[in-house]
């Protein structure tokens, strides 16, 4: 499952858990993006922060792991490169790529989209506020998952105005955000709790 994970939240974790269960996956590899090319105009937190929050959020699940392939590869992240790197590291694995409905809708605009279908089986999951389109392909599955109306954008906006993100993101991620002062609005006091 690729993502910016800025920060990782329970929408990501529920989607991953549901797909793992429904498709009987041995492992879900969370892959924080390097420079996300779709988001290059906006500011994205340092890759190390996003990586560590993803590690904290997934640490308790024995089937969840985190890969550095995208953050260690220089330049913008393309899903084609992510899947090639994962395949190289796990040559025997059947790869599934998990995306939410919004990312699925953009998929046809991705670079080298035809190559992508050969690299992995794509699973599009439902996401509140986004329609999940049937691409009419047998190598793409659609899965309805419990509706979690959570986005990283909303979590960042909440932190910026000192609103809580408890229970939207894992407890350790709440604490990590506070510890490093991520997403704070300019001029906010440094000790305003959550
Ligand atoms: P941002 O608001 O910064 O774009 P985001 O919440 O969309 O953050 P991403 O890191 O962009 O999170 O998403 C990574 C993947 O997780 C994408 O495929 C996205 O569609 C999916 N996803 C994110 N949130 C949810 C959710 N609440 N339910 C289902 N899928 C989700
Ligand atoms: Mg997003």
Architecture overview:
Strand 1 (2-3), helix 1 and strand 2 form a beta-alpha-beta unit. This protein has 194 residues and is of the alpha/beta class. The chain has a three-stranded parallel sheet with strand order 1-2-3. Strands 4-5-6 form a three-stranded parallel sheet. Residues 187-194 have low confidence and may be disordered. It has helices at 10-22, 47-58, 69-72, 79-89, 101-106, 113-119, 152-160, 171-180; strands at residues 2-3, 28-32, 64-66, 96-100, 121-125, 140-143. It has one domain (2-148): HUPs (Rossmann fold, 3-Layer(aba) Sandwich), CATH 3.40.50.620. The two termini are 28 Å apart. Helix content is 37%, strand content 12%.
Derived from helix and strand composition plus strand pairing, the structural class reads alpha/beta
Largest sheet: 3 strands, parallel
CATH superfamily: HUPs
Instruction: Identify every distinct bound molecule in the structure, by name, code or SMILES.
Output: adenosine-5'-triphosphate, magnesium ion
Number of domain units? 1
Distance between the termini: 28 Å
Count of extended strands: 6
**Overall residue-averaged pLDDT value:** 91
Give the SSE order as H and E letters.
EHEHEHHEHHEEHH
Gyration radius, rounded: 17 Å
- Low-pLDDT stretches are 187-194
Net shape: globular
**Residues in helices, as a percent range:** 25-40%
CATH class: Alpha Beta
The fraction of residues assigned to DSSP E strands is: 5-15%
Number of helices: 8
GO molecular function: ATP binding; nicotinate-nucleotide adenylyltransferase activity
Domain Cytidyltransferase-like: 1-158
InterPro entries: Cyt_trans-like (IPR004821), NadD/NMNAT (IPR005248), Rossmann-like_a/b/a_fold (IPR014729)
Function: Catalyzes the reversible adenylation of nicotinate mononucleotide (NaMN) to nicotinic acid adenine dinucleotide (NaAD).
């Amino acid at each position: 499952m690729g993502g910016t994970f800025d920060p990782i939240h329970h929408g990501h974790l529920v989607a991953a858990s549901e797909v793992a269960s429904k498709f009987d996956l041995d492992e879900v590899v969370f892959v924080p993006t390097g420079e996300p090319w779709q988001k290059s105009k906006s500011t994205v937190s340092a890759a190390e922060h996003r990586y560590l929050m993803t590690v904290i959020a997934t640490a308790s699940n024995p089937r969840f792991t985190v890969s550095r392939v995208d953050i260690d590869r220089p330049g913008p992240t393309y899903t084609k490169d992510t899947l090639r790197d994962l395949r190289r590291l796990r040559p025997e694995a059947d790869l599934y790529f998990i995306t939410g409905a919004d990312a699925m809708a953009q998929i046809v605009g991705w670079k080298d989209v035809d190559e992508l279908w050969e690299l992995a089986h794509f699973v599009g999951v439902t996401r509140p506020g986004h329609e999940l389109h049937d691409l009419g392909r047998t190598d793409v599955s659609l899965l309805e998952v419990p509706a979690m109306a959570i986005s990283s954008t909303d979590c960042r906006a909440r932190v910026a105005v000192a609103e809580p993100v408890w229970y939207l993101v894992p407890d350790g991620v709440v604490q990590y955000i506070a510890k490093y002062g991520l997403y704070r609005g300019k001029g906010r006091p440094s000790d305003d709790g959550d």
